[in-house]
Amino acid sequence: MGRSKCERATNVAPSHGVLAVDRDRLTYAQGMALACVLFDWGDTLMSEDGPAETPMALWPEVRAIDGAGVVLRVLAARYRIAVATNATISDCTSIRRALARVALDAFVAEIFCFRDLGLKKADARFWDAVVARLAVPRTQMLMVGDDLDNDVLAPRRAGIASVWLNCCRRSSPRISPELRVYRRCVLALELSESRSAGRRPCSAY
């Protein structure tokens, strides 16, 4: 798939990912009783640095994004975990095989992909299919990913809260410039739940 999105944007090796939550929109995530956390696949859970026309499961080498295993292990103990991806070369079986190569597959309950659904995340029907299969209200879902359009704005249009894995610390005119930043997805969820319960989140900064 070539260089990662961070590397294409900055021409340097990416540092640890940073999760950015739009403060002005955080209110619709507050108070929700989370049941499911969805993650993008490429450059969110696994590096896209490989041959673009070959399914990732068949690449000579694959690599998990730094911290992905820790985040999934912690969250899978509390929430149902799913993958939602626009990948066009790999189907769900191939994606699971790739996840298994970096020991992430055990944490993932469901996989939603273009090859199986015939839909991409910009299409509202993609999220309708996610909701139907998971049988979870949209208000109890959270999407996490590195692509602003497909992983953040698209699910929000569908009524699903989202967190931006902003590994390049980019800003965007389409999101309020005033961001609350967290080092881990765990902390973003902690903030949402702590505010719902009236507690002070211990790790936000």
Low-confidence region ranges: 6-31, 176-184, 194-205
- Looking at the structure, the CATH topology is Rossmann fold
Strand count, sense and closure of the main sheet? Answer: 7 strands, mixed
Tell me the number of helical segments per DSSP (H or I, 4 or more residues long): 7
Gross morphology: globular
Largest sheet, order of strands side by side?
A: 4-3-2-5-6-1-7
Radius of gyration: 16 Å
List the helices and strands and how they pair.
Layout: H1 5-10, E1 19-22, E2 36-39, H2 68-76, E3 80-85, H3 92-101, E4 110-113, H4 114-117, H5 124-134, E5 141-145, H6 148-157, E6 161-165, E7 179-182, H7 185-196
Parallel strand pairs: 2-3, 2-5, 3-4, 5-6
Antiparallel strand pairs: 1-6, 1-7
Entry summary:
With 205 residues, this protein is an alpha/beta fold. The protein contains seven helices and seven strands; from the N terminus they run H-E-E-H-E-H-E-H-H-E-H-E-E-H.
Overview of the molecule:
There is one protein chain. The chain is an alpha/beta fold and 205 residues long. The protein has a single domain (17-196), classed as Rossmann fold. Helix content is 30%, strand content 16%. The protein is built from 7 helices and 7 strands. Strands 4-3-2-5-6-1-7 form a 7-stranded mixed beta sheet, sandwiched between helices. It is globular, with a radius of gyration of 16 Å. The chain starts with a helix and ends in a 9-residue tail after the last helix. Residues 6-31, 176-184 and 194-205 have low confidence and may be disordered.
